[in-house]
Amino acid sequence: MDEIARRRQMLFSGTGFSAALFHSGGLPGGASAPFSYFSGCSVDGSYLVLNRRGGMLLTHEMNFVEAKEKCRYPVRVFGSKPAKDLKGACGRGKIAFCPSEMSAARYFALRKKAKLRLVDAGDKIEAVRGRKSEGEVEKLAAAARIARKILARLVPWKFGTEERLAAHLKMEALRQGCEIAFEPIVAAGRNSAHPHHRSGSARLGNFVLVDFGVKKDGYCSDFTRCYFRGEGMARERETYGKCRKIHRDIVKALPKCKTGKDVALLGAKLIKEAGLPPLIHSIGHGIGMEVHEFPHLGAKSRDSLGGGTLAIEPAAYFKKFGVRYEGMVAHVKGKWREI
Amino acid sequence: MDEIARRRQMLFSGTGFSAALFHSGGLPGGASAPFSYFSGCSVDGSYLVLNRRGGMLLTHEMNFVEAKEKCRYPVRVFGSKPAKDLKGACGRGKIAFCPSEMSAARYFALRKKAKLRLVDAGDKIEAVRGRKSEGEVEKLAAAARIARKILARLVPWKFGTEERLAAHLKMEALRQGCEIAFEPIVAAGRNSAHPHHRSGSARLGNFVLVDFGVKKDGYCSDFTRCYFRGEGMARERETYGKCRKIHRDIVKALPKCKTGKDVALLGAKLIKEAGLPPLIHSIGHGIGMEVHEFPHLGAKSRDSLGGGTLAIEPAAYFKKFGVRYEGMVAHVKGKWREI
Fold first, then answer.
1. Does the predicted model carry a pTM greater than 0.80?
2. Counting C-beta atoms within 10 Å of the first and last residue's C-beta, which end of chain B has fewer, N or C?
């Protein structure tokens, strides 16, 4: 069975859905992650309808040739009544969909116009996507390698300001044949105190935090490094060292963790033991076609870690600065390995 | 009254909503267009609650300082019960929201957990955003100028393949201090027959279609040009010339158009008169903080054109090639002008 058929099988296994429906989104050059995952392509403006035996892609005339070339399911063009075509393809049973990937507007229209019996299958869809195949881990590792390399050879001070350093990182991603996985965070000096600081015109001093990742073949990477110049900044350096150590210790202890909650509690414990303030964001997140995906690493999360890929990001924020160390780890054949 | 207050006033004028609710989205470095438009900032992971008298931004602790710096409304940090905080801020009345900008998952959660009386105000919100202020048109014109300049001096043949030309366009956008407004479409030779062709490894021959725009200060541009090298391609050149002329003729006739429908019908008429096949996508679209926004230019659209900014893109697609010419036009002080 090929990968795409295996994904479909996992989706329906143990469920009562008769079909599943995904939409790729409206803009060219990209598609929602669940659509790409289950269709194996990223044609815009298209619906993917799956059932236990197979599936079908419904699209606009203008995407037909592209869809036929790239999608492994049969492709049909919408006629003058798209709602009727959709209803015909989906049938009368319960239709699984992913509410986090569909706008409320589309949901309303599908219910009202196509009269589809849509059922929230977000948890199931995200859990299936969270368990990575070896092929997916290879792609994630490739994206990780490129981001790590760019960060390892980075001399941030050459670029003068946060904005210019951020632009450089984006160009580096392009030069490596990638997109950025998210808008890079470049936080100079005091700005590092804000985890999601938006890069601006601030001049780089002797300390800068960079949070950066690329998207390669549809898969994301996500790393954070802090850069120091010259002497001093003893407290920043020491705290950064602690975060690196906590990262290492979490990775070592992952074999004992079963759920997202286990990692969150482990992270909180290690941060406390290191004498650092409690974290104001989660200790990390699943990563794949999206930067943030299953498993969720929160104090209440029951998400299973098995087969997952994680970004782990211990950090400490104070009034005048913040530091963070972030790296990726994948669970392959029952073992965790850094990628 | 400042611009942000004026926008709020337009939103509530003639409606029965007691409040309006927007969410910025979850990733750093960007926010949904309605959130940015009404808040004047783009802090991630935040809610904006507006009423007739003012508004408030609710955010996570980790975004507080950034939000306080950039948002003109008071900022509050979510406590341990965010749903309760939201309910308190929104009140019991009808709460306007924009379903095209909110995921179905968030909509479900707001209804169930915060018990908000959400009312679909998408049409109103989009219509308000569609009428541009002079300041907005200036920003759109700046984004347009940069994209036009990049396309005007482009020598596509230097880059060998579609992908590499697309990467060059993205880097040019970055060098000009912009983002891309959308993934550039670079279609060599036969690939131009597909309006939303995804740039790939195809080598550039003697004909290439480029659809490209930048985002500057939050506002988008969108242009399409066709490039020819050497002799021949008489039919491609001639058809492209016709599209340019149709574009010019539509812009000239815009003062007679009142709605999106009027433009769609005008476009269809001119395309028919030029002996070209009926268009398989719309003749254009509103453009602003999003590449595609109000007014919709379709055969059934009653969207008013007044104060709008449009991208007009007459095109013709055949089996072996396609051509398209796209440019932008803004309605300022009752007059249309190309930007």
1. yes
2. N
- Is the Cβ–Cβ distance between B295 and B282 less than 8 Å? no
Q: Give phi and psi for B287, each to the nearest 5.
A: -145, 145
A313 touches chain B (CB under 8 A): no
Nearest to B288 by CA among B27, B33, B101, B23: B33
> Using the beta-carbon criterion (under 8 Å), do B62 and A281 form an inter-chain contact?
yes
The residue ranges of DSSP E strands in chain A, in sequence order, are 19-23, 47-50, 55-59, 75-77, 95-97, 118-120, 179-180, 185-188, 207-212, 214-216, 219-220, 223-228, 284-286, 293-296, 309-312, 315-317, 322-324, 327-332, 335-338
- Give the C-alpha separation, B178 to B221, whole Å: 11
Q: Are B188 and B262 in contact (CB under 8 A)?
A: no
Cα–Cα distance for residue pair B95/B133, rounded to 1 Å = 26
Nearest CA-CA distance, residue A333 and chain B, Å: 31
Closest chain B CA to residue A107:
B104
Query: Inter-chain contact B102–A103, Cβ cutoff 8 Å?
Result: yes
- Shortest distance between the Cα of B62 and any Cα of chain A, in A, equals 6
Cα A339 from chain centre? 15
The pLDDT tens digits of the residues spanning A210-251 come to 999 999 999 999 999 999 999 989 999 999 999 999 999 999
Instruction: Give the gap in angstroms from C-alpha B43 to the nearest C-alpha of chain A.
Output: 8
Contacts of A21 in chain B (CB under 8 A): none
> Which of A28, A167, A184 is nearest residue B198 as measured by Cβ atoms?
A28
Contacts of A198 in chain B (CB under 8 A): 28-29, 42, 66
Helix (H) or strand (E) holding B164, with range, is helix B162-175
Q: Give the one of A30, A45, A104 whose C-beta lies nearest to B99's C-beta.
A: A104
Give ipTM to 2 decimals: 0.90
CB-based contact A142:A217 (threshold 8 Å): yes
Contact by Cβ (8 Å): A287, A122: no
The verdict on a CB contact (< 8 Å) between A99 and B122 is no
The answer to whether the CB atoms of A196 and B108 lie below 8 A apart is no
Q: B62–A184: do the CB atoms touch at under 8 Å?
A: no
The chain-wide mean pLDDT, for chain B, equals 94
**Which residue on chain A is closest to B186 by alpha carbon?**
A29
The C-alpha of A60 sits at a distance from chain B's nearest C-alpha, in angstroms, of 9
The domain B3-130 having CATH identifier 3.40.350.10: the answer here is: yes
SS3 B271: helix
Return the number of other C-beta atoms located less than 10 Å from residue B7's C-beta: 19
Detail the DSSP E strand segments found in A124-282. 179-180, 185-188, 207-212, 214-216, 219-220, 223-228
Q: What is the pLDDT of residues B262-299, one digit of tens each?
A: 999 999 999 999 999 999 899 999 999 999 999 999 99
* Structural domain spans, chain A: 3-130, 134-338
Tokens matching residue A20: 């599943």
CB contact under 8 Å between B198 and A66, yes or no, is yes
What's the CATH fold of domain A134-338? Creatine Amidinohydrolase (3.90.230)
Nearest to B196 among A62, A122, A194 (CB): A62
